[in-house]
Amino acid sequence: MERRKLDWARYYVFEKGYPVIPTSPKSKQPVIKGWKKFQKVLPGNEELEEWFCNGSKHSISIVTGKISGLAVVDLDSPVAVVLAEKMDFPEAPRVKTRRGYHLYYRWQEGIVNFQNRVDLPEIDLRGEGGYIIAPPSIHESGHQYAWVESHNLEDISLVDLPEIIVKEAMKKGRTFKGGYKDI
């Protein structure tokens, strides 16, 4: 039997220890005020039911960084996928997105968000202070985010980020500019 959205949210929170928040499928923005508190605490079952029951169209987004222990590399195009393959990124849990993949790695102290790095075109990182859209969310285009077979959180353990990601991500002032507002 296929998991419902609420079941997925409960799995992420109660089985994996990853805080989730509801986001808009159109803008990818949080639909709750004060989402940043979930960088420090897990939501409870009542919150999950409020956010993801009764035909909710909200996307499930996992908060990255220290609380979840996750850093997610967003390969946002076929070009980025090829570049990651050429750079021999380590095997990691993998989500198929509309244009590429999300690769789930172990977060390390000091890892923050970045995007638009000249040396990593169309590759973004979500670390401390970020979040990532998770399965089974549906993009406004109709594409459903999905775990790649044999590359889900149960099949592959989290490993360290590729060194090329770490060396720049830990530099101060490289945080993501825009999009993640505390509404």
Short description:
The chain is α+β, with helices and mostly antiparallel strands. It has helices at residues 5-15, 45-52, 78-86, 163-169; strands spanning 20-23, 59-63, 70-75, 94-96, 101-106, 123-126, 131-134, 146-147.
What do these coordinates show?
This protein is an alpha+beta fold. It has one domain (5-169). The protein is built from 4 helices and 8 strands, in the order H-E-H-E-E-H-E-E-E-E-E-H. It is globular and about 45 Å long. The model is unreliable at 172-183 (pLDDT under 50).
Largest sheet: 5 strands, antiparallel
- Give the ordered list of helices and strands: HEHEEHEEEEEH
Strand order of the largest sheet: 6-3-5-4-8
Regions with little confidence, pLDDT below 50 for 5+ residues: 172-183
Radius of gyration: 15 Å
Shape: globular
Structural class: alpha+beta
For the record, the count of structural domains works out to 1
Q: What count of helical segments does DSSP give?
A: 4
Mean pLDDT: 89
Query: Kindly, what is the distance between the CA atoms of the first and last residues, rounded to a whole number of angstroms?
Result: 36 Å
Give structural attributes.
single chain, 183 residues, alpha+beta, 3-stranded antiparallel sheet, 4 helices, globular, disordered C terminus
